[in-house]
């Protein structure tokens, strides 16, 4: 017997068991899904930076690169987003045939089942490139490779299920979708009322034990065209045909959509995006038990299966689309700002334009850094649940800011819709990313820190498991071991946070990273402050912290910034410490540090225990929140990264879809190159106070060839600045033909006069 355990730990154990809030099965399964990774290092308060820098960067194989520069480029050339939206409201049939034939739906399915067997990074790169050409096509491709039946079958399916269904999914004979969201259950998917009752029934002329299903799902991407539906429902066994338990819990099964009772609804139109999406119903649909993914033994395990699969999908699909959107915004907005003139000068010279442009550039740098780092984890077989939540939340939120900034700088060019508007549809699509795969509001307030505090903390999950142990003695022993390690860790963190905060991080641990070394020191400082404040909040609030959503959100923001800034540092290191890119890194760091400082101040101002809050302020923020954000110099340099053709611009915006057509993006690229190439010529003319190139040629300021270059550049810029217009009858059926327009208004005026 241990004196410490029986006399000191035991009263604490009894108290903690009494105040620990009950955890539902779905909450526990969500917590246990996926893995912890770099987030666990950040939670220690003393991250090992050498561990981060040793992580192998995600890379494409030769086969994956060939697919990206072959079928993916061909697909992009087939896509016209305006025609897809305005004329067809769907992908063209030749595109559907192409993506099936080239196995875009089977990218993650192993080759042994007829798929491409690509890595998560290759999946990400494909989605990223297609996203810069067509949102509808990108979503169509990403869904079967994300939270679809394929992912669940690969992880949890029986051998027979894999051999039957995966080849059909890989070659497009079956189009999959997954039915999770119900009218009654959105972000709280566990509250679904869709049911499956275990009973005996007739299936393919034989009596078997199976499930009689009733459901109503909505917002289901690919639902209207799916032939194979992955379905989440709650299983019940009232007659105890498979065991003693009546309520079995959330289960996932495969439902061929041609089964009797399956009803596919009409299409939704999400934010005017025309990827296939809609509701479906099942009324007394009977399936055998071997249609449950994983078979009978997986009954009731669906929630954990879903959370595990979602941990990977959330880290790839939407972050890839978001990173693509930010990079696309950086490239197009930099080019447009460079070629567009007001008051006789390029609008890129206005500081009011430089500020949002710098924000776009740095966001593109950071999001792609985080995407690559997360893919490196996934490539290594890690499925980081907390980091996937961070990525989904912050990638989509920061893309929203980047696209809004891009629209502001483009002004009317971005507002007027038509074939030449290369930004409008992306702007319309932003709310979709914000909403799906877990609404951002709830992800920020409940998931990132709520899940991270338990999963990524060095000892908290062990303590909770010990407290919940039904064997009290065994639980006490386990709790004694974990609790005192936690106490020792907390004292170390306290000393570390105090020393680093009062010394401004000067002596904090950091690798030799050249100009970036001070940034590592500051992140070490903030990691210690975060870990200490999180521990004290958990100690003083206990289970009540779960209900303090605004506090939880602020802690989540700090953890997210620590991860995203780590990713930016790793990118700069992996790319060879490019001096030209340092301004983007500086912008990310200054902005991230400001957010961390402000969130710490907000936490300390709102922590209910005011004595603890005052103590923590003395330890971690004795001089208040002092970081102001990026300097004007950094903003100027950061914006400049996309204003001229350069290697830095290409590194920032790599592998976007470049199609040499007469579309808005292609016109912009041509005009940008021509304007940059004639910059020196234009400067000579301005120096001579001459505006007309022919006059400049006559006076010998420039040559005839140079004048023609200027004329070509001017013509190209004019084509970019143009916006679309439409005949009235093209926009509204009330106008039968152009000649009817005047007659229509004349008759309308006569009717009003008569009344």
From TrEMBL:
- Domain Acyl-CoA dehydrogenase C-terminal bacterial-type span(s) in chain numbering: 454-726
Limits of the Acyl-CoA dehydrogenase/oxidase N-terminal domain:
81-172
Pathway(s) of this molecule: Lipid metabolism; fatty acid beta-oxidation
Q: What is its EC number?
A: 1.3.8.7, 1.3.8.8
Q: Does the keyword Flavoprotein apply?
A: yes
Boundaries of every Acyl-CoA oxidase/dehydrogenase middle domain copy: 177-267
Q: Which Pfam families match?
A: ACDH_C, Acyl-CoA_dh_1, Acyl-CoA_dh_M, Acyl-CoA_dh_N
Catalytic activity of the protein: a long-chain 2,3-saturated fatty acyl-CoA + oxidized [electron-transfer flavoprotein] + H(+) = a long-chain (2E)-enoyl-CoA + reduced [electron-transfer flavoprotein]; a medium-chain 2,3-saturated fatty acyl-CoA + oxidized [electron-transfer flavoprotein] + H(+) = a medium-chain (2E)-enoyl-CoA + reduced [electron-transfer flavoprotein]
Record-annotated Acyl-CoA dehydrogenase/oxidase C-terminal domain positions: 300-447
Give the superkingdom in one word: Bacteria
What UniProt keywords apply to this chain's record, in alphabetical order?
FAD, Fatty acid metabolism, Flavoprotein, Lipid metabolism, Oxidoreductase
Q: Which family does it belong to?
A: Belongs to the acyl-CoA dehydrogenase family.
Q: Which PANTHER family did the record assign?
A: ACYL-COENZYME A DEHYDROGENASE, MEDIUM-CHAIN SPECIFIC ACYL-COA DEHYDROGENASE, MITOCHONDRIAL-RELATED
**Protein name per its UniProtKB record:** Acyl-coenzyme A dehydrogenase
State the organism of origin. Bradyrhizobium stylosanthis
């Amino acid at each position: 017997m241990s004196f410490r355990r029986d006399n000191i730990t035991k009263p604490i154990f009894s108290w903690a068991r009494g105040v620990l809030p009950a955890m539902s099965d779905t909450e526990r399964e969500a917590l246990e899904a996926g893995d912890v990774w770099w987030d666990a290092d950040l939670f220690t308060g003393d991250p090992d930076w050498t561990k981060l820098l040793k992580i192998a960067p995600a890379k494409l194989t030769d086969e994956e690169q060939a697919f990206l520069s072959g079928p993916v480029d061909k697909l992009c050339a087939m896509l016209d987003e305006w025609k897809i939206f305005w004329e067809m409201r769907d992908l063209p049939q030749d595109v559907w045939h192409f993506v099936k034939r080239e196995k875009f739906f089977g990218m993650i399915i192993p080759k042994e089942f007829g798929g491409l067997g690509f890595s998560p990074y290759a999946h990400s790169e494909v989605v990223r490139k297609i996203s810069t050409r067509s949102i509808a096509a990108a979503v169509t491709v990403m869904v079967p490779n994300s939270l679809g039946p394929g992912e669940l079958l690969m992880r949890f399916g029986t051998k027979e299920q894999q051999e039957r269904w995966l080849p059909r999914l890989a070659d497009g004979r079956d189009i999959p979708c997954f039915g999770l969201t119900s009218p009654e259950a959105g972000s709280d998917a566990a509250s679904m009322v869709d049911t499956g009752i275990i009973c005996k029934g007739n299936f393919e002329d034989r009596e078997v034990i199976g499930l009689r299903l009733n459901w109503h799902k909505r917002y289901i991407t690919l639902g209207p065209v799916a032939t194979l539906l992955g379905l989440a429902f709650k299983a019940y066994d009232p007659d105890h045909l498979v065991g003693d338990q009546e309520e079995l819990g959330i289960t996932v099964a495969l439902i061929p959509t041609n089964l009797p009772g399956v009803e596919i609804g009409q299409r939704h139109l999400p934010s005017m995006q025309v990827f296939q999406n809609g509701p479906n119903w099942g009324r007394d649909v009977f399936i055998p038990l071997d249609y449950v993914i994983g078979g009978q033994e997986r009954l009731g395990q669906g929630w954990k299966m879903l959370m595990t699969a979602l941990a990977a999908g959330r880290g790839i699909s939407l972050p890839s689309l978001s990173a693509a959107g930010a990079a696309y915004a950086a490239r197009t907005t930099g080019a447009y700002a460079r070629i567009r003139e007001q008051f006789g000068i390029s609008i890129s010279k206005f500081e009011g334009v430089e500020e949002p442009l710098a924000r776009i550039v740095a966001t593109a740098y950071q999001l792609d850094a985080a995407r690559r780092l997360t893919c490196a984890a996934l490539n290594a077989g890690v499925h980081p649940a907390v980091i996937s939540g961070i990525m989904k939340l912050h990638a989509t939120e920061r893309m929203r800011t980047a696209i809004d900034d891009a629209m502001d700088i483009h002004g009317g060019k971005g507002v007027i819709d038509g074939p030449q508007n290369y930004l409008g549809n992306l702007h319309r699509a932003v709310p979709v990313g914000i909403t799906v795969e877990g609404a951002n509001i709830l992800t920020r307030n409940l998931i990132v820190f709520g899940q991270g505090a338990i999963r990524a903390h060095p000892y908290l999950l062990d303590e909770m498991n010990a407290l919940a142990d039904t064997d009290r003695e065994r639980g006490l022993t386990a709790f004694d071991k974990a609790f005192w390690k936690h106490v020792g860790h907390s004292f170390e963190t306290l000393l570390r946070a105090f020393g680093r905060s009062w010394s401004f991080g000067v002596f904090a641990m950091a690798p030799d990273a050249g100009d970036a070394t001070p940034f590592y020191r500051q992140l070490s400082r903030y990691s210690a402050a975060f870990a200490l404040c999180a521990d004290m909040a958990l100690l003083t609030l206990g289970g009540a912290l779960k209900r303090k959503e605004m506090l939880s959100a602020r802690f989540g923001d700090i953890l997210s910034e620590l991860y995203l800034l780590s990713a930016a540092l790793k990118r700069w290191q992996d790319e060879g410490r490019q001096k030209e890119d340092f301004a983007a890194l500086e912008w990310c760091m200054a902005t991230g540090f400001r957010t961390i400082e402000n969130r710490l101040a907000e936490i300390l101002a709102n922590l209910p225990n005011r004595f603890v809050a005052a103590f923590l302020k003395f330890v971690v923020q004795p001089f208040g929140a002092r970081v102001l954000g990026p300097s004007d110099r950094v903003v100027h340099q950061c914006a400049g990264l996309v204003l001229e053709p350069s290697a830095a611009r290409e590194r920032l915006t790599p592998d976007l879809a470049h199609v040499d057509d007469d579309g808005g993006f292609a016109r912009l690229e041509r005009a940008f190159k021509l304007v940059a190439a004639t910059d020196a010529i234009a400067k000579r003319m301005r120096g001579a106070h001459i505006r007309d190139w022919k006059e400049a040629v006559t006076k010998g300021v420039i040559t005839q060839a140079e004048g023609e270059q200027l004329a070509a550049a001017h013509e190209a810029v004019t084509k970019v600045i143009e916006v679309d217009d439409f005949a009235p009858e093209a926009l509204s059926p009330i106008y039968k033909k152009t000649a009817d327009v005047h007659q229509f208004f004349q008759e309308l005026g006569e009717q009003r006069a008569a009344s």
